[in-house]
Amino acid sequence: MNAPTEMTHEDVLRVKLEVLRREHRDLDEAIAALADRTMPDQLTLKRLKKQKLSLKDRIARIEDELTPDIIA
Length: 72
Description:
Layout: H1 9-35, H2 42-66
């Protein structure tokens, strides 16, 4: 029997990163669709943009954690 292998911390971060990137793309599409309306709801648009920016920050933090520091 093969025992299930545990994911490393880096594996978990990579999965989270992909999920966050997908959410970011979905929000981008939702914002574009809402903005294309004749009378877009500005409050909803603002909330979606704020949520998208928050996702971008989380993505950047995970990418920084996954990228090894290079000492110059």
